[in-house]
Design brief:
Organism: Epilithonimonas ginsengisoli
Shape: rod-shaped
Order of helices and strands: HEEHH
Strand order of the largest sheet: 1-2
Biased composition (Basic and acidic residues): 121-150
Largest sheet: 2 strands, antiparallel
Number of strands: 2
Strand content: 5-15%
Number of helices: 3
Radius of gyration: 42 Å
Helix content: over 70%
Distance between the termini: 89 Å
Structural class: alpha+beta
Protein name: YtxH domain-containing protein
Region (Disordered): 116-150
Length: 166
Amino acid sequence: MKKILVLASTATLLFATSCKKNETVVTTDGSDTVSVVKTTETTTLTTDEAKAKVDKAQADLDAAIKNGDKKAEEAARKALADANVAWEKTKNAVNNAAQDVKEGVDNTVDKAKVATQNAKQDMKETAQDTKEAINKAGKDAKDATKKATEDTKEAYNNTLDKLKAK
């Protein structure tokens, strides 16, 4: 059950973080209108991949600083910032998925406990009903036997009385 929940939450996480974002930008120059559709695709990173991108961006930044290239340094700083944001988002997504799985497992355990308690209560009630039915059947059998004995005794006495009368 835990494996199913983990797989389901992982699939949901992958689906939720792998998406396309379409953005339409409309610009107007006098009488001409230009419409541009910008598509941004986000891919899912594992925490290891995100950390590797941060490390690579840091190495690129260090190399740009060492070489003294200001444009490369600025681009590397931006790449490092983007990589850090992606890494934080990935860590948060993994933590959220783990929390969702834990909550799902806890809910399942709680529901199983309630179902077990309900089953125990139902079995107790059924056992009590069965016990009552057996006791009633025993009492009915005892009463029937007592009545049959009395009827037999009465019939015997009647027969004796008839024989005495002759």
